[in-house]
Design brief:
Elements lengths: L17 E3 L6 E3 L1 E4 L10 H13 L4 E3 L10 H14 L7 E6 L14 H15 L4 E6 L8 H13 L3 E7 L3 H14 L5 E3 L13 H8 L2 E5 L20 H4 L10 H16 L4 H9 L7 E4 L4 H8 L9 H7 L11
Parallel strand pairs: 3-4, 3-10, 4-5, 5-6, 6-7, 7-8, 8-9, 9-10
Antiparallel strand pairs: 1-2
Bound molecules: NADP nicotinamide-adenine-dinucleotide phosphate.
Length: 337
């Protein structure tokens, strides 16, 4: 692998694809790149590098990580850190890196959920793997039913005060816990920046109160799995391709390619075709139709997929008629396609 620093595309900021994150001073690209899958030990280093560099050249300034992304857990941070140091070091001030803690990371009672002990130790380990002095956003990855919210939030507050994170966020919190987290962080003097919920045409749970809390609180939001892990793309319309996520991930199952799914996905694909775009592009424009959504964080297993997803930002927004036409095929509530 070449060690030459990357010379970034001089036109990377020619399109204004940035949206303000709630009522904060930070803007995020409307599409961000997530490193949950496809950035572990089974992916060639060159492919990871090419996707990360292509993102930056397209103006995608935000990379989303977590302590447990890999496999194995931690690998995505290590690879990303190496790639950043080798190729993008001069551009660090143009990049927003996030990481998270909240899922199981190491054995024993201090390697999971939301204690102050776990969150702050995990952030230190993330910074070591990334080879960075600070991350831009540090998230509590999921609510902890046992730890008092005050304790988890005070750990986020300390992460920011110590300079190890610039902003704090929460992920997978429901509406009530989000409201409470906002209140606590405001009182601590470190306002929460952002929420990261799952949201797509196939999982509209955030419409049941969470987006309202996000809007009222002035939080930004970055929605994950906006392509439903590939279900809202052309990937599975004609079978299960070799190397696709279903073939190697425990998080997406062959049983999800049901007749109902295919019926919905094909109907949505026809609507996309009518707009001259891909199903992935339609799905991304659909989540971004709501101004309370700051960014959609996509995964990509190739440079081509990333380009296709980012090109969704070149299309005119969906019209009210198009949104209405999508409605019968977009699943409501927690029902899954
Ligand atoms: N906070 C949380 O709890 C949480 C949970 C999950 C994810 N996340 C974040 O959200 C990010 C995205 O999640 P995700 O990977 O599930 O998102 P996704 O964007 O819904 O799915 C990504 C997958 O869709 C396929 N794909 C992507 N772009 C495509 C295109 N243009 N055309 C055709 N297929 C395309 C690829 O599948 P193949 O691999 O089959 O090619 C890719 O791996 C993660 O990396 C992570 O940063 C956060």
């Amino acid at each position: 692998m070449s060690h030459t620093p990357h010379v970034a595309n001089p036109d990377r900021y020619s399109k204004d694809i940035y949206r303000r994150c709630g009522r904060s001073g930070l803007k995020l690209p409307a599409i961000s790149l997530g490193l949950w899958q496809n950035f572990g030990c089974s992916t060639p280093m060159e492919r990871m590098r090419d996707i990360i560099l292509e993102a930056f050249d397209l103006g995608i300034t935000h990379y989303d990580l977590a302590n447990n992304y890999g496999p194995p857990p931690g690998a995505a941070e290590s690879y990303f850190g190496r790639i950043l140091r080798k190729y993008l070091k001069p551009y660090r001030d143009e990049i927003i890196v996030s990481t998270k803690a909240g899922y199981g990371m190491w054995p024993g009672p201090y390697g999971d959920f939301g204690s102050r002990k776990y969150l702050l130790a995990s952030l230190d380990r993330s910074l070591e793997r990334l080879g960075m002095d600070y991350v831009d956003i540090f998230y509590h990855h999921r609510p902890d039913p046992e730890t008092p919210l005050e304790e988890s939030m005070s750990a986020l507050d300390q992460a920011v005060r110590s300079g190890k994170a610039l902003y704090a966020g929460i992920s997978n919190y429901g509406p009530d816990a989000t409201r409470e987290a906002v209140r606590i962080m405001k009182a601590l003097g470190t306002p929460l920046l952002i929420h990261q919920p799952r949201y797509s045409m196939f999982d509209r749970t955030p419409e049941q109160g969470l987006l309202d809390v996000i809007g009222e609180s002035g939080l930004g939001s970055i929605v994950f799995s906006p392509l439903a892990q590939g279900l809202l793309t052309n990937r599975y319309l004609k079978g299960i391709p070799e190397g696709s996520r279903i073939t190697h991930s425990e998080f997406l199952k062959e049983s999800q390619i049901s007749p109902t799914y295919l019926e919905r996905a094909k109907a949505l694909n026809e609507i996309a075709k009518g707009r001259g775009q891909s199903l992935a592009q339609l799905a991304l424009q659909w989540v971004l139709r709501d101004e309370r959504v700051t960014s959609a964080v996509v995964g990509a297993s190739s440079v081509g997929q990333l380009r296709d997803s980012v090109a969704s930002l070149d299309f005119e927004p969906l019209t009210a008629d198009e949104i209405a036409a999508i409605e019968p095929y977009a699943v409501h509530g927690t029902e899954k396609a």
